[in-house]
Amino acid sequence: MNVPANLKYTKDHEWLKVEGDHALVGVTDFAQHELGDIVFVEVETVGEHLGKHESFGTIEAVKTVSDIFMPVSGEILAFNETLTTKPEIINQDPYGNGWVIRIKMTNPAETAELLDAAQYEQIVQV
Q1: Residues 103 and 25: beta-carbon distance below 8 Å
Q2: What is the pTM of this model?
Q3: By C-alpha distance, which of 35, 25, 31 is closest to 70?
């Protein structure tokens, strides 16, 4: 399982890559593995401001449908449109081309409440 050290993580298995006051959000390698083959990603919240822990979309896999949650509060600036035709990219490259949304963080200080790679690894290995 891959857990890059340069990202922040949630207990709900989302990751956050901070880029100034913007950030990319996706699902972790652990999450995509647990979900199985991803067949559909839906995000209808572009342009909306959502609070921390609010659902911004869903991921449908062969086994299940799961909500995806905001790691921090912010405005959703973009959805990775590639996922509309190739959702399996999340399975292949969850931390790269498989990003789900780009946000503008409302309160960047909230990132301090997220897990670092070592803390996240402890959660998923339990």
Answers
A1: yes
A2: 0.95
A3: 25
